[in-house]
Amino acid sequence: EAGTAGAELFQAALAKVMASPALAVLQAEQVDAAGRVIAQSRYSTRELVAVERAMAESADRMAEGRSFGVSGRHVAAALARHDAAIRRAGGQGLSEEQRQAVAHITGRERIAAVVGLAGAGKSTMLAAAREAWAAQGYRVHGAALAGKAAEGLEESAGIASRTLASWERGWARGFDQLGPKDVLVIDEAGMVGSRQLSRFIQAADAAGAKIVLVGDPEQLQPIGPGAAFRAVAERAGFVELEEIRRQRDGWQRAASVDFGRHRTAEGLAAYAERGAIRFEDTGEAARAAIVRDVTADMAARPEGTRLVLAHRNADVRGLNEAIRAVRQDRGELAGEFVYQTSEGARAFAAGDRVLFRENNRVLGVKNGMLGTVEQVRDGHLTIRLDSAAGPGQGRAVAVSMADYAAVDHGYATTIHKAQGATVDRAYVLASGTMDRHLTYVAMTRHRDGVLLYAGRDEFSDLAALSGRLSRSQAKETTLDYDQAAYAERRGIDARGMRSEIVVPEAARVARQRGMFDGLKLGGGAVRGAVPVPVPV
Fold first, then answer.
1. Relative to the CA of 302, which of 26, 346, 476, 484 has its CA 20 to 30 Å away?
2. CA atoms in the 13 A half-sphere facing the CB of 155
3. How much is the pLDDT for 20?
4. If DSSP states are collapsed to H, E and C, what string results for 18-79?
5. What is the rounded distance in angstroms from the CA atom of residue 317 to the CA atom of residue 311?
6. 423 neighbors 447 (Cβ within 8 angstroms)
7. What integer pLDDT is reported at residue 3 of this predicted model?
8. How far apart are CA 484 and CA 504, in angstroms?
9. Is 321 helix (H, G, I), strand (E, B) or coil?
10. What distance lies between CA 65 and its chain's CA centroid?
């Protein structure tokens, strides 16, 4: 009875949604001569269609603009200086891809995009571009969805950066307005949803400014609707960075390319062949293996950098507690204090690893930053932030728990907080909630090595692991449903297009069974639903 009542409630709710005047039909259901469904109906809202249309119109207008050129001598000088600095540090210098990317984004157009695989040297390229823009007299600003990503852009590329939310708060108060001499670089743009990215593109368009989008649409997907970065990059044109520079071994760089090009199974196979995928009987045993290996690495290489990664918060919490317990047993965490944090009661001692969970301008910390506790006392922590030199090698931060309680243990963290991070070694717990995007991020954070741990109670073998971790959760935009233009940009046959956004099977079955009292799902005749053309 409960099941029947639930089904009736679902059908009533779905009928109400399908009858809403806010609904827009992007694509009607298509059937073949035998009556088989060959293309599902696609729907969105009129509001989102308008948002993405406005974004597209601004992007098209900015792509046609020709007011932001940089002198060739400034570009050449910046490239020469950065190439020499890399070589003095023992590197191979700037790659041809990086040089082309700098030339692309310092071009005259008012919008530009760079699609870069994880570890392909986007930050180094942006540092050279910043110098060229500054030499030409432009003001260069940075932005990112997450505070840690903004901090990373500032540290690695020298571009003063803030979160997107901070920029919008400033605009609302009348501050920090863009002008025709401003260049705004948005890093990790693939994580930004359509509504927010549309606001930034339209603001730059109205101000006569230039906007540069940098990211990878295959990494973590936006929380909100739309794959705005991918859609804008396809319209405005983009340059790609595919030469991986993060991993030291050639086979690992090749595996990173596989992960970034939808070949998750091939990337996992490369690590499995070299013993870097560890199967245990259970998930609990897999977590115990991570704890054993990580604590051994901490003892052997205290100066090294490492990340323990999991997707589920419960797994992160368990790993943090278990790693810390081993350190306590070794006598490494004496004299602890218990604090009330935003995550509940937490004990900290000198030497503990700490994760900051909220941005704080006074302390100069960002959500996702890591550090090492130097001193504990009643109500206060002194924490030494991580830096490029190693864990706990940055500046010291004095934290009053009465004023800032958003701290937690930092031995393990979520994959979401790790995007953009680079460490010597990574330890990853596989879970059935992961997809190809999370797998790509988790398996490309390291320079030297990564180990992936899985329980056979969740993954019977490598094939099962690869199948689960290869699932796509890629998002689309309403702009994709001007099919001819979309197919032309993608270089594919529009007749063979297949979206990853589908109307649930339950809805199709309900329609077939006449559950919607006259509503017609997918013929373009849904009562109240308005087909909305999406312009190129």
1. 346
2. 14
3. 85
4. HCCCCEEEEECCEECCCCCEEECCEEEEHHHHHHHHHHHHHHHHHHHCCCCCCCHHHHHHHH
5. 11
6. yes
7. 62
8. 25
9. helix
10. 29
CA distance 188 to 216: 7
For residue 496, the model assigns a pLDDT of: 40
Which of 237, 191, 242, 256 lies closest to 422 in space, CA to CA? 256
- How far from 142 is each of 134, 154, 164, 238, 379, CA to CA, in Å? 13, 7, 9, 19, 35
pLDDT recorded at residue 176: 93
Which residues have CB under 8 Å from 16's CB, separation 6+? none
Q: What is the mean pLDDT of each run of 10 residues along the chain (536 residues)?
A: 74 85 83 83 86 94 93 97 94 93 96 92 95 98 92 92 95 96 96 95 97 91 84 92 91 95 96 98 98 96 92 96 96 92 93 92 89 94 86 90 94 90 94 96 96 97 97 85 52 41 35 32 31 40
Whether residue 355 contacts residue 370, with contact meaning beta carbons closer than 8 Å, is answered with: yes
Q: What amino acid is encoded at 401 in this protein?
A: M
b/e string for 494-519 if b means 16 or more Cβ within 10 A?
Answer: eeeeeeebebeeebbebbeeebbeeb
Q: Going by C-beta distance under 8 Å and a sequence separation of 6 or more, which residues neighbour residue 225? A: 44, 48, 193, 194, 195, 475
Q: Given this model, what pLDDT does residue 377 score?
A: 93
Query: Could you give the CA distance from residue 470 to residue 435 in angstroms, rounded to a whole number?
Result: 6
Beta strands 380-385 and 277-280, pairing class: unpaired
In 3D, which of 342, 254, 336, 353 has the Cα closest to residue 298?
353
Q: How far is CA 482 from CA 25, 31, 41, 477, 494, in A?
A: 12, 19, 14, 10, 10
Q: Classify residue 395 by burial, with Cβ atoms within 10 Å: 0-12, 13-18, 19+.
A: exposed
Assigned token pair, 74? 């400034």
Q: Which residues pair with 455 in a beta bridge?
A: 280
Q: CA 22 to CA 29: how far, in whole Å?
A: 19
Asked if residues 503 and 42 have their Cβ atoms less than 8 Å apart, the reply is yes
**What is the rounded distance in angstroms from the CA atom of residue 337 to the CA atom of residue 346?**
8
pTM for the whole structure: 0.81
- Rounded CA separation 257/440 (Å): 9
Q: Is 331 helix (H, G, I), strand (E, B) or coil?
A: coil
Instruction: Answer yes or no: are the C-beta atoms of 477 and 222 closer than 8 Å.
Output: no
Q: What are phi and psi of 396, to 5 degrees?
A: -90, 140
Q: Name 144's Cβ contacts closer than 8 Å, sequence gap at least 6.
A: 150, 152, 153, 161, 163, 164, 186, 187, 188
| CB atoms inside a 10 Å sphere around CB 321 | 13
For helices 122-136 and 96-105, angle between their N-to-C axes, nearest 10 degrees: 40
List the structure tokens of 127.
Answer: 């540092």
pLDDT of residue 440: 95
Residue with tokens 């004496």: 334
- Residue whose entry in the numeric block shows the structure tokens 């919607």: 516
